[in-house]
Amino acid sequence: MPIPTYGPNVVDWETRIDMDRLRTERLARLRAELERSDLGAILAFDFTNIRYMTSTHIGTWAVDKMIRFSLLVRGGEPIVWDFGSAAKHHQLYNPWLDYSGAHPDADPHGAHHGADPRNPSGARAGISTLRGAIHPDAKMGETVAAKIKHELELYGLTNEPVGVDVIELPVLFALQQAGIQVVDGQQVFLEARRIKTPDEIKLLTHACSMVDAAYDRLYEFLRPGVRENEAVGLVAKTLYDLGSEFVEGVNAISGERCAPHPHVYSDRILRPGDPAFFDILHSYNGYRTCYYRTFAVGSASSAQQDAYTRCREYMDEAISLVKPGATTADIVSVWPNAQEFGFPDEEAAFALQYGHGVGLSIWEKPVFSRLVSLEHPEVLEEGMVFALETYWPAADGWGAARIEEELVVTADGCEVITKFPAEDLLVAGQRYYAVNGPLPTQRDSQSHLNTEAGSAAKK
Predict the structure, then answer these.
(1) pLDDT tens column, 108-130
(2) Cα dihedral sign for 79, 82, 84, 86?
(3) Residues facing 364 on adjacent strands
């Protein structure tokens, strides 16, 4: 049965995404990973890890600031330190962070799951160094360290290592000076996030459905004279109109920019016969997409058609192997090596034949790449959600094809949740007519078609 999708509204007449269950199950997975580790606590500065741990969010403007942080200690409840106004908002509207026993989940004796008299609220005022913008003499790193050490002392964990995801050096040094052993904690977070809960899968699928719609609008819009940046604007507006939380990026690549792939859009004007591929990355309730499609504008050369066919074949071979128990090495083994498509080694070709987990961020576990997967394979499990990407340059030296599908690993295989058609190369734009009828959508060089040699080439 396909993964269901719903309207974005909450209703009383249909079971949809259960946000309370989402929060509970995410935290349970994180606790389980912490318990499996040798860490006393995990400390997060990365916004996606903070959100996974605490289910708090203050907007996308702050994702690169490293100002907020959250902590989960063994035997304790999540704590998030935030701007004072944001912390106050969390206290008012995030009851799952209220550990006082005073909210509706409390029993008559004042106890409830998560109640902790030592920590009445898990939402507190506190900031880090603002990536160094606050004067070093203000000792904000030491302030952060003092808050963390206080919590460790409450739970008798001062001698246990603390796992951190990403960290600023002044904060790291302050933690070490406070006697706290800091180690890599990113693996704890990413292992917890590796398998998606049912509600996460529904959110990821809904996010893809929004990109389906964006590609439909884009297909209607593409034509000679359109610029890459205009296509980006159209996609962003479509997604925001549909309820996107954050359009993280739209990769718009056309014409000779396709090979090599620059991974960034420009203001180039599309021309008749251009290849054009796009990658749409956005967030719905925190859950991302990474979703490539390739089009031809008006017509496609035989070289572009061949490139697309080969790109699709590599994709289909990979998808056919996805099931529980298969490995990332199994998948990448059917993809070409770097030398086969013009690169000296796998590092130089990294992220062209590629796969990665998708969740609250891209890229998550597991990773699929000939650079690492053949020697360090990861086993696929039911409930994983990841994207597979293939690329192939056209023989004409300037076109290329790029396809990406997102998949959910099921009990006996997988389900593709990116639905916009990609089995064959789609030709977008105005259909042109000559006296003898419509111009063909596969066309090669037009420079000498009416000469004797050109007429022979047409045949």
Answers:
(1) 333 333 445 555 789 999 999 99
(2) negative
(3) 357
pTM for this model (two decimals): 0.93
CB 305 within 8 A of CB 284: no
Regarding the domain delimited by 19-193, which CATH topology (the fold level of the hierarchy) does it fall under? Creatine Amidinohydrolase; Chain A, domain 1 (3.40.350)
Tokens read off for 296:
């031809």
**Three-state DSSP class for 318?**
helix
Runs of H (alpha helix) within 121-250: 140-154, 169-177, 186-194, 198-221, 228-241
In angstroms, the CA 171 to CA 178 distance is 10
Terminal C-alpha separation, the chain: 48
- pLDDT digit string, tens, across residues 275-317: 999 999 999 999 999 999 999 999 999 999 999 999 999 999 9
Strand-by-strand arrangement of the 182-184 sheet:
123-125, 79-82, 69-73, 41-44, 162-164, 182-184
* Locus of tokens 């902590």: 71
Q: How many CB atoms lie within 10 A of CB 401?
A: 29
Alpha-carbon span 293 to 394, nearest angstrom = 16
- Domain segments of the chain as ranges: 19-193, 195-438
Hunting for tokens 């090596």 — which residue is that? Answer: 337
Class for the domain spanning 195-438 = alpha beta
Helix ranges restricted to H, 242-388: 302-320, 328-332
Smallest Cα–Cα separation from 388: which of 376, 370, 409, 403? 403
